[in-house]
Amino acid sequence: MRYFCNMNAIYLDNAATTALRPEVVDVMTKVLSEQFGNPSSTHSFGRTSKSLLEQCRKNIAKHFNVSAAEIVFTSGGTEADNLALRSSVRDLGVTEIITTKIEHHAVLHTAEQLQNEYNVDLKYVELDDLGFINYQHLESLLKASKKAVVSLMHINNEIGNILDIERVAKLCKSYNALFHTDSVQSVGHYTTDLKAIPIDFLAASAHKFHGPKGVGFCFIRKESGLKPLIFGGEQERGYRAGTEGLHNIVGMDKALEMAYTNLDTEKAQVSALKTYFVEQLNLKLPECHFNGASACMTTATYTLINVALPVTAEKAAMLQFQLDLKGIACSKGSACQSGSTTGSHVLKEVSTVQILKRPSIRFSLSIYNKKADIDYVINTLVEFTSSS
Question: Which of 169, 201, 216, 233 could form a disulfide with 180 if both were Cys (CB 3.0 to 4.6 A apart)?
Answer without folding.
Answer: 201
